[in-house]
Fold these 2 entries.
Entry 1:
Amino acid sequence: MKASARIFACALAAVLAGSLQAADPPAAATAAKPPVRFAIVGLTHDHAAGFIPSTRGRDDIQLAGIVETNAALVARYAQRYHLATNLFFPSLAELLAHTNIQAVATFTSTFEHRRVVEECALRKLDVMMEKPLAVNNEHARTIAAAAARGGIQVIVNYETTWYTANHAAYAMVHDQQAVGELRKVVIHDGHQGPKEIGCSPDFLNWLTDPVLNGGGALNDFGCYGADLLTWLMDGRRPDAVFAVTQHIKPGVYPKVEDEATIIVTYPRAQGIIQASWNWPFSRKDMEIYGEKGYVLVPTAEQLRVRLPKTAETEVIPARLTAPHADPLGYLAAVVRREIAPSGLSSLAVNLTVVEILDAAHESARTGRRIDLP
C-alpha cells in the first residue's frame, strides 16, 4: 500500500471507529450520580428556545430555575413550554434563596456575559454562555479574571462544537496529520439575516446593537470561524488580522455590519473567515487545506477527503459520544469535574477568539492589517 493511501486508511479507520471521544460511562455509574442542577439566566437570546426542550427526560442534568425580569418573555416561555410559574425568578439572588444550583447557562446579550460571570464567580457557580465569550477584549479579560478568583469553570457553547464532522476533521488533520502541515482554512458561517429568518424582537434588539452584541455579522458569525481556526491551530494566537466589512442592507441593519471577511495569518498558514447576514441560505461549513491534501466539511455529519494520488472520498464519521455529544452533557461533566473544558468550548481558546474579533473590527475601521503582539 502506498504511503498516502496508508495514511488515509489509518485516519479513516480512526474516524469510522469512533475513536475521537471517550466511550460512554457504564449505565450503572451514570444512574448512580444525582443530576447536576442548573439555572438559565436570561431569555432574550433565541437559542434558549431550542435549549429548554433538550433539558427534559435527562438523568444527568436538571433545570432548577430561570432568571428573567421581562414579564412578557416569562409568560411566553411558560406558556410555550408548559413551565410552572414558580420556576421563574427576577434575580439570581432570589433564585438561590429558594433553590440550590451548581451551574448557570446564560441566554442574555453578549454584553451581559461579564456581569453574569462576575455574579456566578462570587457564588462558585460554573457558567456556560452562548457564543461568543464577550463583546470585546476588556470584557473577556474581566471574565477570565473573575473565573480565576472564584475558582469556577467558564465554557462557551457553539452549535458547531457538536458537529461530528468537525471533530472527525480535527482528528484527521491534527492527530493523524493526514494532510500534512496546514496551509489554508476557509470557514463560511451565517444566513440570510436575523430579521429575514424571523428572529424575535427581543433577540434583534440587542443582536443588531453595536454595544450589546459588540458588532453585527462579524461577531455573530465571525466567532465560529475564529473558534474553529484557533482550535485547528492548536490554540496558537495569529500573527496578524485583516478584515473588510460592509453594510449591504443599511435599511435593515443601520447600526452594524451585515457582511465581514476576516483574514487571519500565521507564519506558514492562513485562515479566511466569511461571516455574513447575506447568504442565500443558512450555512456552517469549512474547507481545510494542507500541504498534501484537503478535508472539506460541507455538513455537520459529512467529510470529503482527498490525498495525493487518491480520488476525493466521502466520509460519514461515527457520532460523538457522551459527554462530548451535546452542551448539556458537557456542562454536567464539567461541573462534576469529570472533564476539564478544552478545545472549542474552552476559555483559553475563546479569549483568542475575542482577540481576533477585536482586531478585525479595528482593521475594518482603519483599513490596516492589525499585528498582534
Entry 2:
Amino acid sequence: MKGWVAVTRFVIASANPDKVAEIEAILGAANVELVPRPEWVPEVTEDGATLAANARLKAAAICAATGEPAIADDTGLEVDALGGAPGVYSARYAGPDATYADNVALLLRELADAALEGCSSRTARFRTVALARFPDGREIMAEGVVEGQIATEPRGNGGFGYDPVFIPREGDGRTFAEMTPAEKHELSHRGRAFRALAAALAAPDTR
C-alpha cells in the first residue's frame, strides 16, 4: 500500500485463529508486521456495552501487557427482526461456551419465532470496529458495515461464525460461506474496517 514509510509492528489482540487469519489476509498488502498475542497474556473480559468499547478494552490491555502497539476489533451481527440482536453479544449469543453452529442455530430459531409473531423481515448487517492502540495512548479507530439478510438455512463451507447464513446485499445471492476468502474480504465488514484502519495509519499525521 502506498504511503507507508516504515514497517509498523502490531500485536493482534484476538486469539481466535479464524479472525486472525482474516485480519492478516486483509492487511497483507500493507507494510505492517502482525504478531500473535503472547500466550502468557490472559484473555480480556469483553464487558463493554458497544463494539468500540470492547475493541478498546482488548487493544489497551494487550498494549499495556506487551508495551507494543496493538490492534483489536469487535464484530456484531445486527438483525432487525430481533431488535438489533445479537449485536455486541454475537460471539456468545447461545452462551459463553457456544460454538459457531450453536449461535447460528439459535439465530435461526429466534427468527422463526419472530416470523410466527408477524415479523418476517430477515434484514441484517455485520458491523466491525477496528482499533489500533499505541503505548503513548494514541488510538486510531475505523468501522466497517455490510448490509444483507439472513438465509433460511446455512449454506457453504467457508468462513466462520454467522457466515453460512449471511447474504450480503452487494453480492450475488451467495452467503459469505459460499464465497472465496478474497470475495468475502472485498465485501465484508472486517475487510472494510481494516482497509479503513490501514488508510488512517498511513495518513501523514499518524506516522
